[in-house]
Write a structure and sequence with these properties.
By secondary structure, this protein is α+β, with helices and mostly antiparallel strands. Helices cover 46% and strands 7% of the residues. Helix 18 runs parallel beside helix 20 and helix 22 crosses helix 23. One of its GO terms (biological process) is protein ubiquitination.
Length: 546
């Protein structure tokens, strides 16, 4: 850190026992009392009159009124910074650094310690230090910028914040080969916070070397810096994306307490953070600056804190461009009241529906490019549809364990993907089995409706074997699965026996077998996941956003 020492005389300021009174050790008695907030400074007129135009005026006015007391209100930096200015007037040693230089500059301006009053006055000295020290240092520029918020409006009027931002932006956009200062880099190769000494590091400086240090900035200052960085046109969208992901990771919590979500101040702060991050995203929504997982994390937070529709729509527009790259966990977005389900089913249906329309698939599952009367171009390929179908089936298996999930919602999610997009129905069968297991009291008609969603001909052999033994499935599905799981010779024997009224093995199959018992799971992916406990409430919980 850069620092500058001013003055040469020893520090002779003393404080009384209570700490409210300060005085200078001197053979001469004090002849003026300066009140700053709750503190009293017992000082001497001459040193003050020679440096400060404001104190000149106030001391003259006090003398005319027959008093030796002066009151200073609203000085930038308060008592601590006034003391620095007063010591400078006495020629005593004071030390300026990135933490106090902005406040000292504002206070010097406030007190009128300019060249009009005395040569090489405090304003001049500080300006020399800012230009030759602070603004040449990456870390010091950031620290100085952080102090500007508490010094409004002076820091803005003197353009100190703008000058800090310009210094930071110019360094962030410089060629990484020219980076010769230290910076923090704790992502990827580094396992913890690490100060990288660029001069001594033989490794090349990464393009995103600057993003970690900026994460310490307040959201409004961060926005101003990022605007300045982007306006220079030297930073690619993927690096901007890295910066925004790092900032979101720094300030967005991994989970939200349900009670905190209902706190208006809490929600407003995070909503402002979300709006800023989204506003700073590259304007090209098709760019790969950020992953689908990152956008879904932001969308999850937006849902939890009740952000506005415009913000959620912007995030959804970006999500659907990469929805096939999401994971099941990414889509598990908690629902807000009055929804009864644990997760927001309608939101996922909306995302899948928009992806399908973008892919040229109608609500009936018809591909527009297969219709002679339609000319439709899309950049969604078959691999993307197959990938999304696996994600949807995995998602359906997760939410199927929710006791509050209705049959209609289950059917809606299952049918959100066209049949042609599913190369296999093993994943769909897993979801159906979980749903039937957690909803044992469904009417037979609804069981048949659920089971009819899958095509047993698209089940793997292992899944067929599992389904053939699955007493939760309607009898018709069990019979079809049993037949498909057999060899050709055994299948013919099965058909002859079944036509005679008996299944293989000569035992009569009970008509009640569609609701009784449980079956063993197969060894492959057809195995339904362990069901989640339905006793936990969706309220009064911590919502994960990771």
């Amino acid at each position: 850190m850069k620092f500058m020492k001013l003055g040469s005389k020893p520090d002779a300021f003393q404080t009384d026992g209570g700490g409210d009174s300060r005085y200078v050790l001197s053979e001469l008695p004090s002849d003026i009392v300066i009140h700053v907030e709750e503190a009293r400074f017992y000082l001497h007129k001459f040193p003050l009159l020679s440096k400060s135009s404001l104190l000149q005026r106030l001391i003259i006015e006090a003398s005319q009124n027959g008093t030796d007391e002066v009151y200073i209100h609203d000085i930038p930096g308060g008592v601590k910074i006034f003391e620095i200015c007063a010591k400078f007037c006495y020629g005593m040693v004071v030390t300026l650094n990135a933490y106090n230089v902005v406040a000292a500059r504002c206070a010097a301006e406030f007190l009128g310690m300019t060249e009009d009053v005395d040569k090489s006055n405090l304003v001049f000295k500080i300006e020399v230090f800012l230009n030759s020290g602070i603004f040449r240092s990456w870390k010091d520029s950031i620290i100085a910028l952080q102090t500007t918020d508490a010094l409004l409006p002076w820091s803005e009027q003197l353009k100190l914040a703008a000058r800090c931002i310009d210094s930071i932006a110019s360094k962030a956009t410089s060629n990484p080969c020219n980076v010769v200062w230290s910076y923090t880099y704790n992502r990827k190769s580094a396992s913890s916070d690490e100060i990288v000494e660029a001069r001594k590091n033989s490794q090349p400086v990464p393009k995103d070397w600057w993003v970690e240090d900026l994460c310490e900035l307040d959201v409004d200052l961060y926005k101003r810096v990022m605007v300045a960085v982007k306006s220079r046109g030297r930073i690619t969208s993927d690096v901007v994306g890295e910066a925004l992901k790092a900032y979101a990771s720094r300030w967005l919590p991994e989970c939200f307490d349900a009670a905190a979500i209902d706190d208006d101040a809490y929600s407003m702060a995070y909503n402002h953070l979300l709006e800023t991050i989204v506003w700073l995203l590259p304007s090209d929504k098709g760019s790969s600056c950020c992953s689908c997982r990152f956008f879904l994390k932001l969308l999850k937070v937006a849902v939890l804190i009740g952000s506005g529709e415009m913000l959620k729509e912007e995030l959804m527009d970006r999500v659907i461009l990469q929805l096939h790259k999401a994971s099941v966990c990414d889509l598990l977005i908690p629902a807000r009241p009055p929804a009864l389900t644990t997760y927001d089913i309608q939101l996922v249906l909306t995302l899948v529906g928009r992806f399908m329309r973008r892919a040229g698939v109608t609500e009936d599952g018809i591909f527009l490019n297969n219709l002679d009367q339609e000319m439709f171009e899309t950049d969604v390929d078959d691999e993307s549809l197959l990938a999304l179908s696996k994600i949807v089936d995995g998602y359906l298996a997760e939410v199927a364990s929710d006791p509050n999930l209705s049959v209609s919602s289950f059917v809606a999610v299952a049918t959100s993907m066209p049949d042609a997009a599913r190369a296999t129905h093993d994943g769909l069968y897993t979801a159906i089995d979980v749903f039937l297991k957690l909803h044992p009291n469904l009417p037979k008609a609804e069981k048949r409706k659920i089971s009819s969603l899958m095509d047993v001909k698209k089940l793997s052999k292992e899944a067929c074997i599992h389904a053939a033994q699955n007493d939760r499935l309607p009898l018709r599905v069990v019979v079809q699965s049993s037949r498909l799981s057999l060899s050709s010779r055994s299948r013919r024997m099965f058909d002859r026996l079944w036509a005679g009224g008996k299944p293989p093995g000569g035992e009569v199959v009970s008509k009640s077998s569609d609701t009784s018992g449980s079956s063993q799971s197969p060894r492959s992916s057809a195995k339904p996941p362990a069901s989640k406990s339905s006793s936990s409430s969706s309220r009064n919980r911590r919502y994960s956003v990771s």
